[in-house]
Design goal:
Elements (H helix, E strand, L loop, with lengths): L6 E4 L8 H11 L3 E6 L2 H8 L10 E4 L5 H14 L3 E6 L6 H5 L7 H23 L2 E11 L11 H21 L5 E7 L13 H11 L8 H12 L10 E4 L9
Parallel strand pairs: 1-2, 1-4, 2-3, 4-5, 5-6, 6-7
Helix pairs in contact: 1-8, 3-5, 5-6
The protein binds NADP nicotinamide-adenine-dinucleotide phosphate.
Length: 255
């Protein structure tokens, strides 16, 4: 029980396919008490349908990362009901469909601001909210993708958001290190989730990935959840500011 007597705040559970849900299940399996952040009433209904699968009933907290009041109130509730935190999981991203479908050059100013605000600046917002609750040794994990460093077709503005997120991980790690708080990124191979449905030809992306990856397959969502558990737990206590790849060996391959 790696996370016995530990508590975590996991954001980004939309449904049973979410990477955040695989992470929540891994943390729960290892004994963590969890708070799960949800965006609105629609998402709450969908989360409530699956939380019975967890060993310990989680605290469900409304948390919209674009709204400072919502985030402040979420951490107030987490602090009151859960107490201190051993980990924080950022599994949040959003871009308008037209900004993923079209040319990157044509991304609108508002679409660019929206994608970077929800997908990258949100890490600052969550870390600021959680900082006072996090114990020395606590781990923050943010989900990212290879589109941050390579021009992946149709990833467009989300690639720029992931580059900002990964850079933010390093700055936050450098600032929070003195408190013993660690901040790491987890770069996952493509997984069929709700967010992934926003990317046109996602099936082609999965096919190419499986053809080219060293392991000659796609990733299972639980592989990402288990890696996130590692980054949350004391097993990774010597790591901060890193981006760890769990992509079935796609990035290491040449053409
Ligand atoms: P997902 O299940 O759709 O999760 C995305 C989450 O972000 C949803 O729960 C969504 O809530 C939430 N979100 C969007 N706007 C928000 C806001 N303003 N405040 C709070 N939450 C908000 O998809 P996922 O694929 O698991 O995505 C999780 C993370 O993994 C993302 O950072 C994604 O970029 C990353 N990732 C995904 C893949 C992949 O292939 N799937 C690969 C690498 C990295 P609603 O659904 O309720 O809007």
């Amino acid at each position: 029980m790696l996370m016995q007597d530990c508590a975590g705040f996991v954001t980004g559970v939309a449904n049973h396919r979410s990477i955040a849900w695989a992470t929540a299940r891994a943390l729960d399996r290892e004994g963590a008490r969890l708070a799960l952040g949800y965006l609105g009433e629609r998402e709450l209904e969908s989360i409530e349908r699956i939380t019975g699968q967890l060993r310990q009933p989680p605290l469900l907290v409304q948390c919209d990362v674009t709204d400072d009041e919502s985030v402040a109130s979420a951490f107030e509730v987490v602090g009151r009901e859960v107490g201190s935190l051993d980990c924080l999981v950022h599994a949040i991203a959003f871009a308008r469909r037209e900004d993923l479908d079209g040319r990157f050059a044509d991304t609108s100013r508002s679409g660019y601001d929206l994608a970077l605000g929800v997908s990258a600046y949100s890490l600052n917002v969550l870390v600021r909210g959680a900082e006072a609750l996090m114990k020395p040794g606590a781990g923050v994990v943010a989900l990212t993708y290879l589109g941050s460093e390579r021009a992946i077709p149709r990833y467009n503005v989300m690639g720029v958001a992931k580059a900002a997120l990964e850079s933010g991980i390093r700055y936050l790690a450098s600032e929070l290190g003195e408190k013993g708080i660690r901040v790491n990124g987890l770069s996952a191979g493509p997984i069929r989730t709700l967010a992934a449905r926003g990317i046109r030809d996602f099936n082609a992306m999965l096919r190419v990935h499986a053809e080219r990856a060293a392991l000659k397959r796609n990733n299972e969502v639980d592989e990402i959840g288990d890696a996130a558990l590692f980054l949350c737990s004391r097993l990774s206590r010597g790591m901060t500011g890193e981006v760890m790849y769990v992509d079935a060996g796609y990035r290491i391959m040449g053409l």
